[in-house]
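[Automated response] Your request has been received and processed.

Submitted sequence:
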Amino acid sequence: MKNKYQRMSREEKKALIAEYKQTEKGKFLLEKLRNVLISGILLFASSIYLIVTADKVWGYVGAGGLMIIACIFTFASIRLRIKNLNLFAVRGKK
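Generated structure:
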């Protein structure tokens, strides 16, 4: 698959995102991906808090698990956003 979105300039990316937000699928998907990203950031912050306040080994294990989940949420959200914008750029408006 082509990486058209990756090769675009900053202005072209902003125009593509604005055009994608006007579609029904784009509005829904970008909103859901933003919510997943916010959840990942909050999980990351809570795992840091648990690491700081942990007094037993199980506190560190639980915080480590939350940190892994937070990384998965964050990276998956960013990756899916780029993938969908690239598909929209390659296939065009539908």
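Summary generated for your ticket: The longest helix spans residues 57-91. The chain has four helices and no strands.
If you did not submit this request, please reply to this message.
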